Amino acid sequence: xxxxxxxxxxxxxxxxxxxxxxxxxxxxxxxxxxxxxxxxxxxxxxxxxxxxxxxxxxxxxxxxxxxxxxxxx
Length: 73
Known about the structure:
5-stranded antiparallel sheet, 5 strands
């Protein structure tokens, strides 16, 4: 079972996008999850270099990993 959550791309670290769920308090965002930036870019149609600051939705799986990236309307 998965649910769709709101997330934001904080920045790029090498070939990884640092992503945090929007419901995480700002003071707890020091440990974002990293995902392949190319994977997020292909799914959303946004060039890798423009991912930082992007607001997305993603499916949160039972294991807590995110997938199914989509641009937020």
